From TrEMBL, chain A:
Keyword presence, Oxidoreductase: yes
Domain D-isomer specific 2-hydroxyacid dehydrogenase catalytic: residue ranges: 52-322
InterPro entries assigned to the protein according to its UniProt record, in alphabetical order: D-isomer_2-hydroxyacid_DH, D-isomer_2_OHA_DH_cat_dom, D-isomer_DH_NAD-bd, NAD(P)-bd_dom_sf
Signal peptide residue numbers: none
Cited SUPFAM superfamilies: Formate/glycerate dehydrogenase catalytic domain-like (SSF52283), NAD(P)-binding Rossmann-fold domains (SSF51735)
UniProt keyword annotations, A-Z: Oxidoreductase
Protein name: Uncharacterized protein
Presence of keyword Signal: no
UniProtKB/TrEMBL annotation, chain B:
Annotated ranges, domain D-isomer specific 2-hydroxyacid dehydrogenase catalytic: 17-312
Keyword annotations from UniProtKB, A to Z: NAD, Oxidoreductase
D-isomer specific 2-hydroxyacid dehydrogenase NAD-binding domain residues: 110-282
Matches recorded under SUPFAM superfamilies: Formate/glycerate dehydrogenase catalytic domain-like (SSF52283), NAD(P)-binding Rossmann-fold domains (SSF51735)
Protein name: Hydroxyphenylpyruvate reductase
Pfam family, one: 2-Hacid_dh_C
Family indicated by similarity: Belongs to the D-isomer specific 2-hydroxyacid dehydrogenase family.
Native organism: Salix suchowensis
């Protein structure tokens, strides 16, 4: 019998159940399917519920929710391998209660996300998309010089969440001469940047706020009205984290009333819907949640996912476990 | 100093500069004078200074027409619109605004790299036009770690290198001579540099030698995945060659702040998604324009008060 042949068993790839929205998948040709037996209910619905009962590993692609109901169908589940940096779509409390480990994208996206935060900041301060529109729409020969932008190096940048993305942002912006400060749950002992104990104090001492913390109950609307008032009317907000980190309704009102200088937003509260008041404004830069969307990021993500799954199936420490507070 | 005539040869580049000049001197705005020959004939004696910029300075003909010209104070780093040989011959002092715009121009070079690779302007158009609701935006290209080749390792080139290092970009360069004080890889030819980097940025001065330094051969060496950034001067690039390379897909993308015939930009570029087009805003920040204006005025004041010039070239 094949099962008694140790060589055969070793080469039989372990089964991983795929959990995703029908519209959301890895690009074709990914390396996961060569190393694991991927069971994707969207392309091939399982023939018997018994199979789901035996599933130990779940690969969660994109922002698809993992709820207690999801978990009820998978009584043998031991690990959920996420494919994003933030795992706010996974019920961590419930996973913790059931002793299910959760991993995220680790630092696979950190560089691309940090790059994108810098790009959005350039977009707002040096008015890149507005300048590009000005040229393409033929205004330059007619209206003459384009309105001036603002110097990057003159800005005090406050980073909300100095994790792996925030640290990469800090490293980049320091090279432009920006002064850096931050707020995190805890002061980092290994970092020399000034620390503020709350978002309002950080905003009051910054010209630019870069939002790149994880979304959870504590950080929902961390950038609220008070933070916007503290940031001031020349202030700029960059959000590469999650939409609900910023009170979007207030943000729109502040921008419309001229009580904020500008915003660069890759994420929104109700994607893909973007408040229509933002669509005509030159002091905002908008992008469709694409800060991580490069082939390089997806390669790095596959590395992290494969490493986590391999570690799990061989009882080794996981590469990027999500720590529940 | 109110009696000293200052001729501004360029269109007024900055409201603050004009205001400060008018406070101190008798300012003539040449650009808006309809009969220039007549104006020069009646005012040439009183004009002792010219203020120009990257679009207009003082050519041989103008210098010839201004017998009492003592100083050209340029609101720019580049001096290609000033006939330096003529100035030297006549003993006319020439000043520019070095250093102050180094940071802005270097910043913009990196901004253009990020914008081209990450399709920043295109993604903004995608959201504004409502296309996001119909589906996801396509993948873009990572910037961190891409190799950057710099033509001209002067102040601006070095500032670009320093910034690109924070993105872990390997740096190489081409200059007339190899620099002994940097660790970046040197290529004696632009074609070799282009063949060995993913992003090529023009950061040298415009001279006879560097005119069209980006030609067909360089563009082909950079290749269909390469990106060209020009924050120097339009004539550094053979523009028709660049346009055809972009249209034919022989070049991966371009970020352009300067053009051969500003403010006219080749219309073939308007429909391309792999280019970012800016209206010459390299030094266009509030902070820097004020510093530049202060230098232009400071140089003029120093000259007429017989003090040492702040930033002179001649």
């Amino acid at each position: 019998m094949a099962g008694e042949n140790p060589n055969f068993q070793n080469t039989d790839p372990p089964t991983v159940l795929v959990h995703r929205f029908p519209t959301f998948d890895f690009p074709p040709g990914n390396r996961l399917s060569t190393q694991f037996h991927l069971l994707d209910p969207i392309t091939s619905p399982p023939t018997s519920p018994v199979l789901l009962h035996s599933i130990r590993a779940l690969l969660c692609i994109g922002p698809v929710p993992v709820t207690p109901e999801t978990l009820n169908r998978l009584p043998s589940l031991q690990i959920i391998v996420g494919s994003s940096a933030g795992v706010d779509h996974i019920d961590l409390t419930e996973c913790s209660r059931r002793n299910i480990a959760v991993t995220n994208a680790g630092s696979a996206f950190s560089e691309d996300t940090a790059d994108y935060a810098v790009a959005l900041l350039f977009g707002v301060l040096r008015r890149l998309p507005a300048g590009d529109r000005y040229v393409r729409d033929g205004f330059w020969p007619v209206n003459g010089d384009f309105p001036l932008g603002f110097k990057l190096g003159a800005k005090r940048v406050g980073i909300l969440g100095l994790g792996s993305i925030g640290s990469e942002v800090a490293k980049r912006l320091a090279a432009f001469g920006c002064s850096i400060a931050y707020f995190s749950r805890k002061k980092k002992t290994s970092v020399l940047f000034p620390y503020y104990e709350n978002a309002i104090d950080l905003a009051a001492n910054s010209d630019v706020l870069i939002v790149c913390c994880a979304l959870n109950d504590e950080t929902h609307h961390i950038v609220n009205k008070d933070v916007m008032v503290a940031l001031g009317k020349e202030g700029v907000i960059i959000n590469v984290g999650r939409g609900p980190l910023v009170d979007e309704k207030q943000l729109v009102e502040f921008l419309v009333r001229g009580e904020l200088g500008g915003a660069g937003l890759d994420v929104f509260e109700n994607e893909p819907n973007v408040p229509k008041e933002l669509l005509e404004r030159d002091n905002v830069v908008l992008s469709p949640h694409c800060s991580v969307a490069t082939p390089e990021s997806f390669e790095a993500l596959q590395d992290v996912i494969i490493a986590n799954l391999k570690a799990f199936f061989s009882n080794k420490p996981l590469v990027s476990p999500v720590q529940k507070d | 100093m109110e009696s000293i005539g200052v001729l501004m040869t360029c269109p007024p580049p900055d409201a603050y500069l004009v205001e400060q000049l008018e406070k101190r001197f008798t300012l003539y705005k040449f650009h808006s004078i309809p009969d220039k020959a007549h104006f020069l004939n009646s005012n040439k004696a009183s004009i002792r200074a010219v203020v120009g910029n990257a679009s207009a300075g003082a050519d041989a003909q103008l210098i010839h027409q201004l017998p009492n010209l003592e100083i050209v104070s340029s609101f720019s780093v580049g001096l290609d619109k000033i006939d330096l040989a003529k100035c030297k011959e006549r003993g006319i002092r020439v000043t520019n605004t070095p250093d102050v715009l180094t940071d802005d121009v270097a910043d913009l070079a990196i901004g253009l790299m990020l914008a081209v690779l990450r399709r920043l302007c295109q993604s903004d158009r995608y959201v504004r036009s409502g296309q996001w609701k119909k589906g996801d935006f396509k993948l873009t290209t990572k910037f961190t770690g891409k190799s950057v080749g710099i033509i001209g390792l002067g102040r601006i080139g070095l500032a670009i290198a320093k910034r690109a290092e924070a993105f872990r970009c390997p740096i190489s360069y081409h200059a007339r001579t190899e620099k002994s004080d940097v660790n970046y890889k040197y290529y004696p030819s632009v074609v070799e540099l282009a063949a060995n980097c993913q992003i090529l940025v023009v950061a040298c001065a415009l001279t006879e030698e560097t005119r069209h330094i980006i030609n067909r051969e360089v563009i082909n060496a950079l290749g269909p995945k390469g990106v060209l950034i020009n924050i120097g001067r339009g004539p550094h690039v053979d523009e028709p060659e660049l346009v055809s390379a972009l249209v034919e897909g022989r070049l991966g993308g371009a970020g352009l702040d300067v053009f051969q015939d500003e403010p006219n930009v080749p219309e073939e570029l308007f429909g391309l998604e792999n280019v970012v087009l800016l209206p010459h805003v390299g030094s266009g920040t509030m902070e820097t324009r004020k510093e530049m204006a202060d230098l232009v005025i400071g140089n003029l004041e120093a000259h007429f008060l017989n003090r040492p010039l702040l930033t002179h070239v001649l």
